[in-house]
Structures are given as structure tokens and as C-alpha cells.
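Q: Entry one of two.
A:
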Amino acid sequence: MNKDFKSLLDENENFLEVIEAIIDEHIEDKKFSSKIIEKELSINRTKLNKIIRETTGKTVKNYIIEYRLLKATDLIKTGIKDLDEVAKKVGFSNGSFLKDSCKKHFNKSIEGF
């Protein structure tokens, strides 16, 4: 299912909602990167980085990681306790990497959300 994210951006004032829709579309893909966002929106890396930095204060890479981590915490709240399963659903290679990333980005354990 490939959405026309460029037209969605044209009709939507909230750039981050469009970025999040793209991330959601590829959430399980471990190789997902800003290059896919750039391609989907037909914008260059510099423009994407500038918009994300000005809007969130984060790099694109960190924004994607933190978005995935928040999705992981949502899955845990729904009752999925196997961190390896959660990790795969949000594009991390395993539960250990998911835990380490959460600690690094939020200074909290994944279970602490």
C-alpha cells in the first residue's frame, strides 16, 4: 500500500503528521531512513533536516528513533510484553537494542513508560 504522501503534504499544514504517516507506513522496516521520506515527499536532505530541526530541535535520525520508541511503548501498554516482538514491530533488530535505545534517548527503561 503506497500512499501519495506528496499530495497529503500539500493538503496538510502539519508537516510532522505527514512524516509520522510515512514512518508508520514503514514502521517494521529496519532499514527505513530519511532517504525514504525524502523520496516520498520529493524534497532534498537539507530541506528535510532543516524542517525537522526547526520543528522539533532534533535530527531526522533521532526523530525517527524516538517516534519508533514511542510506538513501542504504546505496544507495551496494550499488553505485549515480549520485547523482541515489540522491537520487530517497530523496526528494531531485537529487544535488547530497543531497551538500550530507550535508555539512551529518554533516560528511562522501556518498561517505565
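Q: Entry two of two.
A:
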Amino acid sequence: MSKPIAAELLALHRDELLRFIKQRIDCPETALDILHDCFMRFSNYLERHQVQNPRAFLYKMAANQTIDHIRQQRRADDRRIEFEAWPELIDPAPSPEDTIAARQRMAMLERIIAEMPEKNRQIFVMRHIRHLSFTEISQVTGLAYNSIFKYLNEALSFCQKRMPD
């Protein structure tokens, strides 16, 4: 058989073959690719062989191509899952840009802390740098919890007003 005959057969069965493939594959573009691949293989096959039932042959070819595509997708998904299962392969280190940005923000924060009123700075450093509890800060400074809370709020407000977003 010649390519024009193959094209006629495919045109005759195109819509039903496309529906058949789309029932098995969610992506319409992929279904069209599979159908096109079937046409190419079918026309090449017809140049060398006789086919008794072209419609059945096209359906079998479309089914096989669809199954091959699904298997290929599963293998790709399995490889992706395997890679995601190895978080140690993903470099947890920040990028150079992130490192520079963090250093700049830290330098800015240090300048802001240095500009704070003395009492606010003292309480802020104890709580957020030295990680002391309210009880420990109270023991060191002799201040009540409400006063510590007030100084911390003032210090945080001071930082927020001066730090860019």
C-alpha cells in the first residue's frame, strides 16, 4: 500500500482513534502526538507489508503507543519520586546571593540595635541574642514582666520602623 492510501485510512478513522487515545491519556496534545506517531508507523509499515484489517491494526497500534507512553510517564514519575526521597542530595546551603543579602540585613540590624535606647537594647539583647527567659531577665534587671514586655515591644517596633521590607 502507498502513503496516500495510509493517509486515507487514517483520515477515515482519525476521530475515533483520537477519542480512543484521549480516553486513556488526559493531555489532548499528547494524544495528538501519539496519533501522529501511529500514522507515521502505519504508513511505513504499509510500504512493506499487507494488512488484512487496517482499522483493527490502527487500534492495536494506538493502544500499544498509548501503553508505551503511560509506562514512560510512570518511569519518569518513579525517577522523580526517587530523587525527592533523597533530600540529602539537595544542597541545603543558601545561594551566594542569599548569603550576601543575609549578611547585609544582619549588619543593618546590628546598626539599628546600636541606635536603640539603652534599656530597650539591654532587654532586646538578653531576650533575642542571649535567649534568656522573662524570669531570667527579671532576675538580672529587677524589672517586672510587664516592664520587660513593654521594653521588648518598643525595641521590636524600633527595629520594624528602621528595617526595609
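A: Comment on entry two: Helices lie at 3-22, 28-46, 54-84, 96-115, 118-129, 134-141, 145-162. The radius of gyration is 35 Å.
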